[in-house]
Amino acid sequence: MQEVRRRRDVVLIGARARAPLVARVLAILLLVAGLVYVGITYNKARKQKQFIMHGGPAELSTRVVSRIENFERRVTDGDRMTMLLRASLYLSYDDGHHELQDVHLEYYPKTGGTDTVNAKQALYFSESENVQFNGNVQIETRDHLQVQTERVAYDVKNELAQLDVPLTFVRENVEGHADAATVQSKEKQLDLRGNVEITVQPKAKGEQAQASPRSRPVTIRSASAHFDQAQGQLQFFGGATAEQERDVMSGDTINGWVNEQKKLNRIESRGNAYLRTMDEGRAAEVRAAEMNFYFDADQRLETAVATKDVQAHTLDADADAQLSAPASVQLFFVAQGERSLLQQMRAEGRSVVTLAAPKSKANDPRAANKRLTADSVRLFWRTTGRDLERAEATGNAELIVEPVQSTPKADRKTLNAPRFDCDFYEVDNLAKSFTATGNAKAVFTPMQPSETRGTRTLTAEKIIAAFVRETQDVERVDAQGSAQFNDGDRNGQSDSMSYTAADSTVRMRGGEPVVWDSHARIKATEIDSDTTTRISYARGKAQTTYYSQEQTGGALPFQKVKSPVFIVSANAEFQHDAGVGIYTGDARAWQDDNFVRGDKLTLRREQKRMEADGNVQSALYNARRKDPSGNRVVVPVFATAQRMFYSDTDRIVHYETNVDIKQGTERITCDVADVYLAKDANEVDHTIAQRNVVVTQPGRRGTGDWGQYTAADETVILKGNPAHVEDDQGNSEGPRMTVYLRENRVVTDSPNGPQSTGRIHTTHKIKKQ
Question: Are strands 715-727 and 526-530 parallel, antiparallel or unpaired?
Fold first, then answer.
């Protein structure tokens, strides 16, 4: 009996001696549990005094035995119990290790509450100072942390705990699991390995307060995780993901923080960072080197910041929108009912937005893609409804609209301005209009350039490009404020301009529109310029200036080659390439005092020809003739008719219908007249009149079917059946009559020569004395 009692005392002494070790094991288990939760919930280190079990008088029998059943150990601090250890069986082995079965350990800190550990078995190896808990290991702390696993091994010397089998843990609204874990007590670091998963619920199980209807759990998964208590940070490695319903956040590593309200408030993703949000009408994904995610009070995504080589694009619209930014992109979400909806993307750095042609029109030759580049870009989704509502681009902004298919009539449109504002149609990310402000510029470049299709440029203080909904190509471009247009040699200017793609026409309005090329300039109340036919149409008080008579090709019967020619009319049509100008509505062309007027004037530069129609009037002020003394003096020639033609090649002015030509006191009327001008001067050489010819001068009148005026000898030859001349001396008739305008005589003969026969009749007037 004495031997047995001695051995029992040894066992109890050993148990008392190992009490501090048990406390250390408990402390490390509590550290394991504490680090898991603290790493998730707080971003600052929380220091806790380590519990150490103190020795005391044994309350059990002191008999030395190798086996103790229903083992129990209580540790007190004064009259306060600090720890309770129970085991159904305590065994001591001759190889130095000890075993406790059905272990139950309770720790009572001064601050209140209880920490407990339960396990099927606990092993202690005295030589290596290793402790191992096996079988349904359960840890529950005073702050409601629960950990479950099948095995925990602790190296006392190195203060290292290993959990090499799966473990689960729960504290209030945070729960998770992993395949294995390592705790380094000295460094206060925790590593989780294999299928790591942590979920932050909107509220703890059993919590009476109701979570917001908007709140949703967030689950973080990774291959491994690491917590450094000194840094107060939990990191997830190996392709980590954080999910909230259909939204996904991921990266090579993820760091997470929970606020004091136990809600997730921030996630950091580093390396191949990714976000996918899947709300209908706002589905999008973002990729970047790094991303930070910020959550609101309801644990719903509120803001995301992506940095370095950011790529973002929409997912479920007919026309995809893509955003690329080398610096950063901020995403803002707005609360709407129970959802957190993507509202805005803000890109900094030289960013590019690509708006693809509608998928439904992929094979339409009219379909077009758009690319918007700027120093800063913002995309806004509709507060109600779906898809993009508007976009803003500031800082050296550029918009390129490029047809999907290159055709002979297709153009690449490039717009530049300090700022762009874009409005979208109701759904499908379809651009409705782009407004460029601040010295805006639009360039139209043919996809297949040719001699007749070159680059066109439009500039203004503001340019608005409107898009066809179905194809997303430019339908109309409106330029406002000091608008200017260029198409090769052709230029235009007005307060505002509007280009329509359907008819390739630029419409100029306001501020006295003007169009000019290397030959002439035309002003009017409004001007339309067709960029395909290269014809300009001017309406309302049209004023045209040819820089010189040379620029008309000599199409007008004016003398000064280097002097400008002016034309005014109600309306005008100017065919730039053909060199044809058509002026209608009381048209009048002049150079100095010389002019041509008609209801319609047509100038043909290449043919060196002019046509006048309707109520024609003309004046050649530089025409010369002999005066009674035989000197050549300037006597203007005025003419009226219903039609007039001029050919500079033939030097002929042709008049038709109700022709009336006057020079000084002489006058010729007829149905048709051709005025032949001198080769080297704008002077009348001779005139041929036909049908119903009447020649009058003071005191003399001649008629015939045909007449010719010759400036050199100042004569008029009349032919008729018969020709007739009447003056103060009487009248004469004959087949041909020559009237000497500067002499008081008329010669009558036959047009067939002096030997021909013909009847001549002369009547003389006798004056009474």
Answer: unpaired
Q: What is the mean pLDDT of the chain?
A: 84
Bridge partners (DSSP) listed for residue 490:
487
Name the CA radius of gyration of the chain, rounded: 53
Report the candidate in 564, 559, 520 with the shortest Cα–Cα distance to residue 542.
520
Buried b (16+ CB within 10 A) or exposed e, 212-231: bebbbbbebbbbbbbbbbeb
Range of the domain at 582: 512-601+609-617
Half-sphere exposure of 507 (CA within 13 A, CB side): 10
* Cβ atoms of residues 558 and 566 within 8 Å: no
Contacting residues for 739 by C-beta, under 8 A, at least 6 apart:
695, 700, 702, 715, 716, 717, 718, 725, 746
The values of phi and psi at residue 8, to 5°, are -65, -40
Distance from C-alpha of 68 to C-alpha of 75, rounded to nearest angstrom = 18
Question: Which of 523, 443, 460, 469 is CA-nearest to residue 495?
Answer: 460
Read off the tokens for 212: 């917001």
Tens-place pLDDT, residues 511-556: 999 999 999 999 999 999 999 899 999 999 999 999 999 999 999 9
What DSSP line would sit under 561-627, residue for residue? SSS-EEEEEEEEEEETTTTEEEEEEEEEEEETTEEEEEEEEEEETTTTEEEEEEEEEEEETT-EEE-
Length of the chain: 769
Return the DSSP state at 51: P
How, if at all, do strands 624-626 and 80-92 pair? unpaired
Tokens of 230: 């000194």
Retrieve residue 722's tokens. Answer: 């018969």
Last residue of a domain, one of 450, 468, 503: 503
**What is the CB neighbour count within 10 angstroms for residue 203?**
19
Q: Which residue has the tokens 């917001």?
A: 212
Residues 664, 670, 676, 682, Cα dihedral to 10°: 40
Distance of alpha carbon 472 from the chain centroid: 12
Q: How far apart are CA 694 and CA 690, in angstroms?
A: 10
Q: Using CA atoms, how far apart are residues 209 and 232, in angstroms rounded to an integer?
A: 28
**Whether 420 and 559 share a structural domain:** no
Q: What is the DSSP letter of 519?
A: S
Q: CATH number of the domain at 714, please.
A: 2.60.450.10
- Residue 297 binned pLDDT confidence (cut-offs 50, 70, 90): confident
Is the same domain home to 468 and 524?
A: no
pLDDT digits (tens, 9 = 90+) for 695-743: 998 889 999 999 999 988 888 999 999 999 998 778 888 999 998 887 8
